[in-house]
Specification:
The protein has about 375 residues and is α/β, with parallel strands linked by helices. The chain is about 40% helix and about 15% strand. It has 15 helices and eleven strands. The chain has a nine-stranded mixed beta sheet, with helices on both faces.
């Protein structure tokens, strides 16, 4: 480490936590939904149950200790303070990997995988699979600073991550990401070719191939149906955040229940959480895990600043070919699932492809062992 890095520890004042509890206590509730499922949004009964747990039983200090168990730093890149976890491996030949979250996620997504990726021998693995793990908070998210001008797009963040890795002294590294993190990782696959040896994504960003429309596979047919459902029923949040992020920010910044509902509803919609015919986020994640992630938005007042990434970049992605080695893991409950032949149209060096049987959009949280295995299998070819 050099003087460009400032060690960072999370230490939320107790009065901030007390303010949260008071706001939860004073919540003004709407009437219940008029349906018997989640089709109008997160149901009132479950929202009240989760808010009550948040107010009375949730222990932020537990997760604060978890975050502080990893070395954390801040560094200023392009006039924005970037927070990141830097978990160096004890194994000398570890491969540096920068791993990027998206919305409505955070570095909390990686709490089950960081240590196993960095120190595989302590978790039943092989030292040859070790990574130095760098997990930054996106600009405007978590403990990173908030952009004060326009222009912080996924392309710019990809360049910032390249600067971060160079500043850390990593001349050869790999990159991984999902959601916005996938888009950022794709950008690195186009622009950081001098030092980034390859990328792995758990949300491939490719277009359906028009030449396949007459002979669709079951996965491709399901994927197109999923896109249609997303556009008609599941994309309202993105329209709001990509057009009026400031407006939605006022309500979410002032109401912890509003912020919680805005986020947790997506953990119902986008996780592989159906068990015995019943979908529920707590079938796959605990209340604590859901709220740990929400807290990184609430405590840092990042509702508006995180939403602005949609204003900057949503719908603006250019699907240029990527010529560096690419690995893709397709989880069954991902928002968009590509087929291999669609992916091969964009990725000329597809070194890893796997379609898994379990997992969704938040793969590292939902299925950490599968996620770890996919990352190891992909990058084993680039060591």
């Amino acid at each position: 480490m050099n003087e460009d890095f400032t060690p960072f520890r999370v230490a939320i004042p107790e009065n901030t936590l007390e303010d949260l509890r008071q706001r939860l206590k004073l919540t003004r509730w709407p009437e219940p939904e008029t349906c018997e499922d989640w089709s109008q949004g997160i149901p009132l009964e479950y929202t009240q149950e989760l808010a009550n747990y948040w107010q009375q039983d949730y222990d932020w200090r537990r997760f604060e200790r978890k975050l502080n168990s990893w070395p954390q730093f801040k560094t200023r890149i392009d006039d924005i303070d970037i927070h990141f976890i830097h978990r160096r491996s004890p194994h000398q030949d570890a491969l540096p990997m920068i791993i990027s979250h998206g919305w409505p996620g955070s570095v909390a997504e990686f709490h089950k995988v960081i240590d196993a990726l960095a120190d595989p021998t302590a978790h039943g693995g092989d030292a040859s699979d070790a990574f130095h793990v760098i997990a930054p908070s996106l600009p405007g998210f978590g403990f990173s600073g908030k952009p004060e001008t326009t222009g912080t797009s996924v392309e710019k963040i990809g360049s910032m991550w390249g600067q971060l890795m160079a500043r850390l002294g990593y001349n050869r590294y790999v990159a991984q990401g999902g959601d916005w993190g996938s888009m950022i990782t794709h950008c690195m696959g186009r622009t950081e070719t001098a030092h980034c040896a390859g990328i792995h994504v758990n949300m491939p960003i490719v277009a359906p191939d028009p030449d396949t429309m007459d002979q669709l596979t079951p996965l491709e047919q399901s994927s197109l149906e999923g896109i249609g459902f997303y556009q008609e029923w599941d994309s309202g949040y993105s329209k709001q955040q990509s057009t009026r992020p400031q407006t939605i920010g006022y309500g979410l910044a002032d109401s912890p229940v509003g912020q919680m509902a805005w986020i947790v509803e997506k953990f119902y919609a986008w996780t592989d959480c159906e068990r015995d015919g019943r979908k529920h986020p707590e079938n796959i994640l605990s209340k604590d895990e859901l709220l740990d992630n929400v807290m990184l938005y609430w405590l840092n007042n990042s509702a508006a600043s995180s939403a602005r990434l949609y204003w900057e970049s949503f719908g603006n992605q250019k699907l240029e070919p990527i010529d560096m080695p690419v690995g893709c893991s397709v989880f069954p409950r991902e928002i968009f699932r590509a087929s291999r032949r669609w992916a091969e149209k964009r990725y000329s060096k597809l070194i890893h492809w796997n379609e898994l049987e379990r997992g969704g959009h938040f793969a590292a949280m939902e299925q950490p062992e599968l996620f770890i295995g996919e990352v190891r299998d992909c990058f084993r070819q680039l060591r």
